Amino acid sequence: MYVRCVVAGAVQAVAGLRAAYDAFAGCDLASLTRAELVGVLDEYEALLCRLPSVGHRLLAQLQAEATPRELGAKSWNEVLRLRW
Questions:
Q1: 80, 73 contact by CB (below 8 A)
Q2: Phi and psi for 33 in degrees, rounded to 5?
């Protein structure tokens, strides 16, 4: 039961990130003041710096649970090239 909740939470969180990105991308930036633009840009840059850490955690977990061969590749480099 707990594992299912964790999985659902991660899947829902990624769906939420996608929805938040779509909402953000659709914003009318022309209506922001200069101060608001600077503030939004600062927050956006801070978020960009934080996002890779989750990707690193995901990859580390995948590497702990699988081998490149199990994912159809010869190396982790190849896994990443084939997937993305």
A1: no
A2: -75, 170
